[in-house]
Amino acid sequence: MALTETVPAAPAHEGILRRQSLRESAARTYARSLPIVPVRARGLTIEGADGRRYLDCLSGAGTLALGHNHPVVLEAIRAVLDSGAPLHVLDLATPVKDAFTTELFATLPRELAENARIQFCGPAGTDAVEAAFKLVRTATGRDGLMAFSGAYHGMTAEALAASGGAQHTSVVRLPYPYDYRCPFGTGGERGAELAARWTQSLLDDHKSGVPHPAGMILEPVQGEGGVIPAPDSWLRRMREITAARQIPLIVDEVQTGVGRTGAFWAVDHSGIVPDVIVLSKAIGGSLPLAVIVYREELDSWQPGAHAGTFRGNQLAMAAGAATLAYVRANGLCRRAGELGARMLTRLDSLAAAHDCIGEVRGRGLMLGVELVDRDAAADATGARPADPGLAAAVRDACLDRGLIVELGGRHSAVVRLLPPLTITDEQADAILDRLADALTAAVRTTPGPTGSSPTTMRGTTP
Ligand code: PMP
After folding, report:
1. Which GO terms describe its molecular function (predicted)?
2. What is the pTM assigned to this prediction?
3. Ligand 1: residues whose CB is within 6 Å?
4. Ligand 1 nearest atom to the CA of residue 280, by list position
5. 159 by DSSP, 3-state: which?
6. Is the pLDDT of residue 45 over 70?
């Protein structure tokens, strides 16, 4: 090649990805498993700089209730920009904030909304979790917290301490009702009841070594923990147990909120009314916003007790109010419930055809497929060891087929689907077709964790 000849430039996306891996921290997350460079997006679809199109079932880790760039969200953002309103206002009152708060309160359980205070927090879910802990500690004068095995509440110090992955923590850990891997070996309602009894006995046994706590935090469906829906009866038990002992119950609806599980808030399924509800992700209509809403009686902290520069994102409030209103007006909670149930039925048939699926589960459009070692024997409760290698192979095979999914769960072996609530039946079918195809391909090419040869479908040979 002559020196003057131009070497063809690597596609822009390759250069961007290479520079990212050279410049960004080793802690980068999604960017590792999803080597794409999004440049355009609408609804369920993302287009990469390489021209490829993907169906996005990660949805900003469950943020995009209406998918990418929904017209009502864009219109709301444009209206603020065109109005000349200030974009930065600390925590001052504005018409945009007033409208957001009114819309949010209209969606909340009435018993809470009628007697509630809202605290605008720093922009991430984890900041709202910190605020909730601070609030209940101030209100009760107590210090300890109770949280659940497998939980995820965020990455700042206290939120992390209350999460399943914590290394150093003084937070008391309680058993979450996980049917497939029930810590009591029973599963079902019985397993959930035993989990509740354990919690109750820790609180009532004066020699349990657990001081009376400032609060208990739980997710109605553990998302990052592997899409594990708690039974409504267990949630009601947690409400009864905490109420009877004057322990504020903090419900983290960062991921489950805004219709995702088939009800506006996941607590609506069980009818429980939390003392504190933690909200973020979808409430900002794809922009950063996080709040806690809590019973007025808890509002005993001092002015400035949870300050922060970025608590007044006007664009997020406008986008969020538009999202809340759209979900409400268009019956998207019911739609998420019905479509999620249909998708779960199809996933059940996938499980029936594949030994490597231990369990499929979910609520609304929060769905998970737990992949297990197809060669291992089931334990006494029917569970088999997780297969994170296969799960990663399925995720990669999905990406090859233009489907973005992420993994969750104790062993990163649960393939998670969090599509927008606005998807059509055809799009839901396309997602499941691609997933089924990816699963078949991954099973064919990935040996089991115990080193056995790849197999294909249940009852067939490779
Ligand atoms: N709580 C739950 C239930 C979550 O799923 C998450 C995020 N996945 C958080 C809290 C933390 O939110 P953020 O990442 O915005 O800090």
Report:
1. diaminobutyrate-2-oxoglutarate transaminase activity; pyridoxal phosphate binding
2. 0.94
3. 61, 124-126, 129, 152-154, 219, 223-224, 252, 254-255, 280
4. 15
5. helix
6. yes
